[in-house]
Design goal:
This protein has about 220 residues and is α/β, with parallel strands linked by helices. About 30% of the residues lie in helices and about 20% in strands. The two termini are about 15 Å apart. It has one domain: TIM Barrel, CATH 3.20.20.140. The structure holds zinc ion (ZN). The site of zinc ion has 5 residues, from loops.
Length: about 220
């Protein structure tokens, strides 16, 4: 099977953070909808309902068990969405077995450069991890910085997430992409009905003539 044929959703919230459904409800619904791969990406944040250092292990164990239970029907991955506006230090995350780590709000914040440096440091420390930006929004950066940011993204192999819930696909920074950029696609589902809706990302790739095979495999 090539990547373009896989029905997947790599940005999904459960009731471990601010989603309305349990991981198992989402998995069952995903199976009904013939979704083949789901990556859960619950929030890690001090500003909203989120997983905490205290229940990382419960979150990981719950999803690992479901992964085994439903292994014949669907592929399950475990990710985390880190709110860089409230989490100061995230290096310890590298010691957990996440399949995907998405950083949010990096570029919308006044101190983005500092946060961006931390993401670079994290990625150098844990080079084997899939690390990227949730609903990547560089809108607040001045034009001159796009090139610099894109160089780092390419150098560190950072993932650009195309998120159906936050469509900003006319941002000029997309013109700085090259054929090395890696993408992830997600619905940002907080409820069952949203699960599997990755149309935003897929149509963006198609409009730009970018192969869907450039979506990462977890
Ligand atoms: Zn999210």
């Amino acid at each position: 099977m090539t990547s373009s044929e896989i029905r997947r959703d790599f940005h999904v919230h459960t009731n471990f953070s601010d989603g309305y459904s349990s991981p198992e409800e989402l998995i069952k619904f995903g199976i009904e909808k013939n979704i083949e791969q789901i990556c859960f990406t619950d929030h890690y944040s001090f500003f909203k309902p989120a997983i905490t250092d205290e229940n990382f292990n419960l979150y990981l164990d719950t999803i690992q068990n479901l992964k085994k239970k439903y292994s014949k029907k669907i592929q399950i991955f475990i990710g985390i969405e880190v709110d860089t506006s409230s989490i100061e230090d995230f290096d310890h995350l590298g010691h957990y077995p996440w399949d995907l780590i998405l950083f949010e709000y990096v570029f919308g914040l006044p101190n983005w450069y500092e946060i961006f440096s931390k993401v670079k440091r994290f990625t150098s420390k844990f080079p084997s991890k899939n690390v990227g930006f949730a609903h990547t929004r560089f809108s607040r950066l001045t034009h001159a910085k796009f090139e610099e940011v894109m160089n780092v993204i390419q150098q560190y192999g950072l993932i650009i997430e195309l998120n159906t819930g936050y469509q900003n696909y006319l941002d000029p920074w997309f013109n700085y992409m090259d054929d090395q950029n890696k993408f992830s696609v997600g619905s940002d589902a907080h409820s069952l009905e949203q699960l599997g809706n990755i149309n935003g990302g897929i149509s963006f790739l198609k409009r730009r003539n970018i192969s869907i095979d450039r979506i990462i495999e977890l």
